[in-house]
Amino acid sequence: MKNAKQQTNGSRFGRRAAFTLIELLVVIAIIAILAGMLLPALSRAKSMGQMARCASNLHQIYLGVTMYADDFGGSFHSIGPRTAPEIPNDGQWFSNPTSKVPLTQNDSMAYWGVAYANYFGGIGGRGAFRCPGAKIVDEWLDVGRPKYGHEFWLNSSLGINSSLVGIANGKAHTKLSDIVYPTSTVFCQDAVEQKFEGSDGDAAGQWPGMKTILGEWMGTGAISPRYYNNYPFQWEVFRHRQRCQTLWVMGNISSIRWQGFNKGCDYRWYTGELPVEQPR
């Protein structure tokens, strides 16, 4: 009797521990539903974290640029006669991925951030110029640059406003005091090109007469189809939940919203012509 009872209890225990196919399917369905609810929340959290880190980097850049200007008589870049070292216009910190020797600020291949490197603890501080949401930026393939890989370029994923390093409206902007409306003039932002002109379709702004933004990179005959397998570079400019993180000359930081190819932001944010209302 004892053995029979033991066998019976064992049999009953076995039946209680087993799951039917329907029960397993229900559990799997519940897990799938919970995962479906959780993943978007995790994605949003990751995106918000990247935006916060990008904003922190932009703030660090502003501090570095301010210290630079303090050391050079108010100049935050220079063109023509050099009251301060001239800001370069390329995208590299090193000549190639295997080099350990940083480029100088006057090297034709240097990224504009190289000029400020000493205010970020040297070349090791180049991570401040990397947007954590960036995946691919201008690798200069259209001018015959070797394919170094995407990672090589990602510490150059913030573009500087060329109006600040060139002639805008007949005037050279070499000092902070030259900018009439610094709170509504873009200094740098999320970008494809390391120095963007905007007026030729490589930034978020839409100049008079332009039918589309980013025309230099997207569309028939543009750079992306020819060199980057039609990569959607609009999401490199508006890389944070369809927003473009922007540092303004006065140090304020805000985001420009994606409105489509046919409606870019006001070009005067780049030229500094008028005190235009900032994006919200």
Word description of this protein:
With 280 residues, the chain is α/β, with parallel strands linked by helices. It is 29% helix and 11% strand. The chain has helices spanning 2-17, 21-71, 223-227, 234-237, 268-271; strands spanning 158-161, 167-168, 171-172, 186-190, 195-196, 205-206, 243-248, 253-257, 265-266. The strands form three sheets. A five-stranded mixed sheet has the order 5-1-4-7-8. Strands 2-3 form a two-stranded antiparallel ribbon. Strands 6-9 form a two-stranded parallel sheet.
Major sheet summary line: 5 strands, mixed
Number of helices: 5
Task: Give the SSE string.
Answer: HHEEEEEEHHEEEH
Fraction of residues in β-strands:
5-15%
Mean pLDDT, nearest integer? 84
What is the overall shape? globular
Q: How much is the radius of gyration in Å?
A: 26 Å
Helix share bin: 25-40%
Query: Would you report the number of β strands?
Result: 9
Distance between the termini: 81 Å
**Class derived from helix and strand content:** alpha/beta
Contiguous runs where pLDDT drops below 50 for at least 5 residues: none
